[in-house]
């Protein structure tokens, strides 16, 4: 009887112990499983799987006015078949769609075309990138039987500021400096700044959206700026020596850092040479050719190799207060040379297409004197003949 009672108690103890273990262990195991397989975790895993199946660059930059290629690719599981590829534009409208291997199935917008690409990848070409092409593009691979897989690429359209090379202008004339930027839609303001060879930069003119060009007070009356956010032109008239320096054309945009280009201006003062001569001693003449210009002119004589010159010419340069330079070239010759040849000085300058020739006019002056004398005598003879004919005509009328 005692053994039976002890057996029953032991059995009851085992049942209670088992019940306690199950009541503590099973919920713990269930909770651990819930952490792994919660809907949120399952969704996150699915998201990683989908994005991992389509490979596409997240962000690209495309230069404006140029063709550009967008690409993406898909990795297929065993048994999957690619039925169709679709590209959506920045407005989620169909940009291009096709069935792989069927060229006749390609349909889409006119400014894009399908490019050759490897298996399980797709490439399209935007023929000429413009501002409207900026945004995010979606490539979709329609798979069977798993469904659609997609990737996205965001495109930023960029442009560079282009300008002229260094320019030269003649003092007193007009000069225009220009620059351009291919994305005026992004521009808020265009600013022109002047930097002298020595000194700080100063604003010259600016133009902003919904406003008129603004010229800074020191330049008003002789500086003009075009009202354009793409092709900007700064005109200076008349140009002065003080305008020489470098000009920066800067575009301020609302999406990027300011972009700029620089053009440097050189100003020329063209020479107006003069020739004079005087007798310094019997049989010796000193000829002077002078020129004021910027930069200094180069003066040569056409009689330097004549054996009747008394040595090479002597050249002197004298800087002037206004930035120009006075050049004096002195040539000493024997007086007999001037009777036989026309001595000339030739002035060369960077602002001239060909040199300026100035003659001392001694020989030409003699010929001109003879010509004037002959012409005068001929005129007197004609007048005398006319007078005689008129007298004869009067006498006939009296008779």
TrEMBL record:
Predominant place of localization: membrane
Domain Ig-like: 27-139, 145-266
Gene Ontology cellular component annotations, sorted alphabetically: membrane
Keywords recorded for this protein, A-Z: Disulfide bond, Glycoprotein, Immunoglobulin domain, Membrane, Signal, Transmembrane, Transmembrane helix
Membrane topology: Single-pass membrane protein
Keyword 4Fe-4S found: no
Subcellular location: Membrane
Membrane spanning residue stretches: 364-390
Keyword tRNA-binding (UniProt): no
Top-level taxon in the UniProt lineage: Eukaryota
Molecular function as annotated in GO: cell-cell adhesion mediator activity
InterPro entries membership: Ig-like_dom, Ig_sub, Ig_V-set, OX2G-like
Annotated protein name in UniProt: OX-2 membrane glycoprotein-like
């Amino acid at each position: 009887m005692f053994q039976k009672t002890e057996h029953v108690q032991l059995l009851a103890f085992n049942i209670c112990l088992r019940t306690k273990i199950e009541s503590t262990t099973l919920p713990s195991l269930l909770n651990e499983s819930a952490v792994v397989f919660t809907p949120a975790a399952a969704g996150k895993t699915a998201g990683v799987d989908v994005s991992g199946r389509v490979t596409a660059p997240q962000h690209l930059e495309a230069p404006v006015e140029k063709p550009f290629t967008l690409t993406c690719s898909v990795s297929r599981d065993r048994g999957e078949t690619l039925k169709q590829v679709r590209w959506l534009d920045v407005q989620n409208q169909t940009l291009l769609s096709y069935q792989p291997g069927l060229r006749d199935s390609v349909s889409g917008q006119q400014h894009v075309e399908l490019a050759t690409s490897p298996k399980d990848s797709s490439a399209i070409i935007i023929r000429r990138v413009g501002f409207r092409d900026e945004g995010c593009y979606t490539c979709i691979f329609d798979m069977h039987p798993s469904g659609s897989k997609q990737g996205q690429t965001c495109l930023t359209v960029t442009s560079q500021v282009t300008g002229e090379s260094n320019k030269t202008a003649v003092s007193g004339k007009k000069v225009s400096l220009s620059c351009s930027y291919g994305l005026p839609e992004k521009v808020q303001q265009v600013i022109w700044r002047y930097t002298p060879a020595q000194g700080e930069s100063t604003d010259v003119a600016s133009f902003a959206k919904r406003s008129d060009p603004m010229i800074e007070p020191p330049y008003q009356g002789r500086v003009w700026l075009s009202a354009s956010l793409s092709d900007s032109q700064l005109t200076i008239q008349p140009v002065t020596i003080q305008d020489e320096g470098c000009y920066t054309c800067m575009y301020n945009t609302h999406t990027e850092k300011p972009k700029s280009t620089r053009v440097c201006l050189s100003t020329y003062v063209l020479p107006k040479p003069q020739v004079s001569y005087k007798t310094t001693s019997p049989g010796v003449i000193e000829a002077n050719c002078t020129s004021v210009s910027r930069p200094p002119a180069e003066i040569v004589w056409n009689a330097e190799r004549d054996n009747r010159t008394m040595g090479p010419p002597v050249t002197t340069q004298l800087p002037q207060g206004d930035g120009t330079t006075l050049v004096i070239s002195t040539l000493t010759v024997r007086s007999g040379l001037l009777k036989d040849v026309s001595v000339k000085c030739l002035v060369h300058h960077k602002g001239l297409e060909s040199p300026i020739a100035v003659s001392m006019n001694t020989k030409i002056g003699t010929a001109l004197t003879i010509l004037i004398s002959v012409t005068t005598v001929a005129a007197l003879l004609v007048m005398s003949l006319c007078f005689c004919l008129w007298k004869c005509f009067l006498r006939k009328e009296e008779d």
